[in-house]
């Protein structure tokens, strides 16, 4: 059997090349119940790494650290001690709250952390997480601590079979900013999981403590809600009415689902805003609208001895051609065009189309 420090031992086993001595931390239970159990062989290089990291320990009775500057809420206490591997007692001098920023950016608040004077490692107790009904799973070098479907924190397996927390400790200034961001992020995650529930609905669930890890709700702007759930508000009812015949004429083209006996695929309607009288012309093509308008204009102006002053239509190509526009300018007819995809602005013509179709269906039903 080859021994260290003796001639003939293997290079990989030569401790002098590692430039360090083995170090261990073992604590036994004292009268006050504060205990930890951690054995670690660490090199000088990794010792600095462990001083700022948290070790997830199955033997620690409580969460413990010697870093006073990490505490956000702190209360000094008297009594209690932790014993190291040589039975040296380390005093417990305080208890408080520490905030940790996890691997995914969320911030967790760790309560009842013991401030142990002279402790070389920072320890998170698995037993304390078990008391909080958390589930601990270890697989392929990753330890997950969960409550329900929510993963609270993760640990990564490193040298000497230790599990280090995948996260970092937040100082007081950093925590105030990160906590606010984390709260918004958690609220947003729940908002998405609940099918983009409203902020008021989420507040009710928080009051009933049904949303784990969420104490208040302040939702940021959600682009998905706006694009997928928004609806157009109802247009105000217009009470305006022309004061004379042909002062304003409404027009629209409707496409028939079937071709008429005479071969028409559309009809164009003209409605006088003052009298609400309607003229309907079947047409075969939309291009026929301009010709029909000239026929309509000649007829109504002759009958009423008045001129058409304004024509309101949508932006359809049948109304916006150069020929149509030039004719209206020559005749002194003002044009009004509705905004695209806003049929409400041409409501008189749209409602007349509906009325004409309903009466046609009623007549066909009676004839059958």
UniProtKB/TrEMBL annotation:
Domain Integrase catalytic: 246-368
UniProt keyword list: Hydrolase, Protease
GO MF annotation terms: nucleic acid binding; peptidase activity
GO BP terms, alphabetized: DNA integration; proteolysis
UniProt name for this protein: Integrase catalytic domain-containing protein
Lineage top rank: taxon: Eukaryota
